[in-house]
């Protein structure tokens, strides 16, 4: 039986066909690998972006905590502690003597719970300045405090009473004066009564 032989032209065609198939396979494999690489790269980029956001959030959180602690410390310095009250009452008597007014009565009430936002309207400008509060912050701050009212009644001439009230408003810790009433007694002596409120952090 006679064996068939491939002619050079057929061999050349076969090689070309094999080359084309190999090129297509290689191209497909390359495309597949490149697609897989792009997917992995995209995932890595998304992961890096996520980690970057986490780091930024952590940095912001640490900054917020630090600022909160600083503000709390600064705010706490302006508030009274219960042990400060006797010394403060002595200071009030000292202010009265220095201002040449006579203290008729000095009665402390009971502690009550208040929110800073509820008291902001009655805070003097000096107290707001000490707290560093802006108008927007006044509405946002919702710190719960304990408030102790002290009913005060004094006698003295007009300038002495004004000096006494000025001393109180300039006190280093936070307090407010409300319900100020001045009545004529034996001119130039006037009768003045008011409620002095001092604040402490709610325990």
Q: How much of the residues is beta strand, in percent?
A: 15-25%
Query: Helical segment tally?
Result: 6
Low-confidence runs = none
Compute the gyration radius: what is it?
A: 41 Å
Tally of individual domains: 2
Structural class based on helices, strands and sheet pairing: alpha+beta
Overall average pLDDT: 79
CATH architecture of the largest domain: 2-Layer Sandwich
**Helical proportion?**
55-70%
Order of helices and strands: HHEEHHHEHEE
- Count of β-strands: 5
The biggest sheet amounts to: 5 strands, antiparallel
The first-level CATH class name of the largest domain: Alpha Beta
- From the spread of the alpha carbons, the general shape counts as rod-shaped
TL;DR?
The protein has 6 helices and 5 strands. The chain has about 200 residues and is α+β, with helices and mostly antiparallel strands.
Describe this structure in words.
By secondary structure, the chain is of the alpha+beta class. It folds into two domains: 71 residues; 120 residues, Alpha-Beta Plaits (2-Layer Sandwich), CATH 3.30.70. It is built from six helices and five strands, in the order ααββαααβαββ. Strands 1, 2, 3, 4 and 5 form a five-stranded antiparallel sheet that branches. A hairpin with a 5-residue loop joins strand 4 and strand 5. Helix 2 runs antiparallel to helix 6. It is rod-shaped, with a radius of gyration of 41 Å. The N and C termini lie far apart (112 Å).
Task: List the SSEs and their pairings.
Blueprint: H1 8-77, H2 85-99, E1 102-108, E2 112-115, H3 116-119, H4 125-131, H5 135-140, E3 144-156, H6 158-169, E4 175-184, E5 190-201
């Amino acid at each position: 039986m006679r064996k068939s032989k491939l002619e050079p032209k057929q061999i050349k065609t076969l090689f070309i066909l094999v080359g084309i198939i190999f090129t297509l396979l290689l191209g497909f494999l390359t495309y597949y690998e490149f697609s897989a690489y792009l997917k992995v790269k995209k995932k890595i980029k998304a992961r890096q972006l996520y980690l970057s956001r986490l780091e930024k959030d952590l940095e912001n959180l640490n900054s917020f905590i630090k600022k909160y602690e600083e503000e709390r410390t600064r705010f706490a310095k302006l508030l009274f502690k219960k042990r400060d009250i006797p010394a403060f009452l002595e200071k009030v008597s000292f202010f009265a003597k220095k201002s040449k007014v006579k203290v008729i009565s000095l009665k402390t009430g009971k502690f009550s719970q208040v929110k800073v936002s509820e008291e902001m309207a009655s805070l003097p400008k000096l107290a707001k300045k000490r707290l560093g509060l802006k108008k927007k912050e006044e509405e946002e701050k919702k710190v719960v405090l304990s408030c102790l009212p002290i009913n005060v009644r004094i006698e003295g001439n007009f300038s002495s009473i004004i000096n006494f009230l000025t001393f109180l408003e300039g006190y280093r810790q936070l307090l407010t004066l409300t319900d100020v009433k001045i009545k004529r007694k034996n001119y130039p002596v006037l009768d003045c009564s008011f409620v002095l409120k001092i604040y402490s952090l709610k325990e």
